[in-house]
Amino acid sequence: MGRLRLASYNVHKCLGTDGRRAPGRVLDVVNALDADVVALQEVDRRLGPRPAALPRRLIEQQSDFVAVSDEGWGPSLGYHGNAVLLRRGIAAKEVHGMALPGLEPRGALLVEAAAGPFRAVAVHLGLRRSDRVLQIAAIRAALSARAEMPTVVLGDFNEWSLLKGLEGLGGYEVLAPGKSFHTLHPLGHLDRIALGHGLEAADAGVFDTALARRASDHLPVWAEVKRAA
Length: 229
Hints:
The chain is α+β, with helices and mostly antiparallel strands and 229 residues long. It has one domain: Endonuclease/exonuclease/phosphatase (Deoxyribonuclease I, Chain A, 4-Layer Sandwich), CATH 3.60.10.10. It is 17% helix and 32% strand. The chain has a six-stranded mixed β-sheet, with helices on one face.
């Protein structure tokens, strides 16, 4: 595995801070991240069959990304609102949705790429810490049953504390690149990137631009990742 640029972005169903739902604007932010792998949260509408808030056709026509997919998702772009975009040329060899425990319905999306190889787990954890503890434990249990592979867990962790709450990710380096929520006045490091054994960050940050502050209520976070020396 060479160096990878990872990003995570809660797109808030493409509803911006100006009250406009503008998927094209969200995709402009995604394109500007210049990432190889992008985890998206709140990418589907919650009503009915959960249609994609960010249309797959728009991604295909106006980006260099492919959204991983599964036949069982219907019109949704992802699983429980989580989607993974891979830059063209990076092929997914396995896609697996994981239902997570907790008071409210939550899920994680596991994607294994042939090149590298590497594994990315896209998450949007619950609002209650007690639920997040259970959800992280479920993710770790699922990963322990799979073959060893360089692994990253990235997404909206919904954890305000920098000191506690993510103890279940022991053994992972948890990056909190910066304050990503709320875009109008960023206070919380809610969006994180956790690196498994053998990986290290060369750089990381928050993508803070005027467009990103309008496009969603979260700012994207990113990290340049490489194998540990």
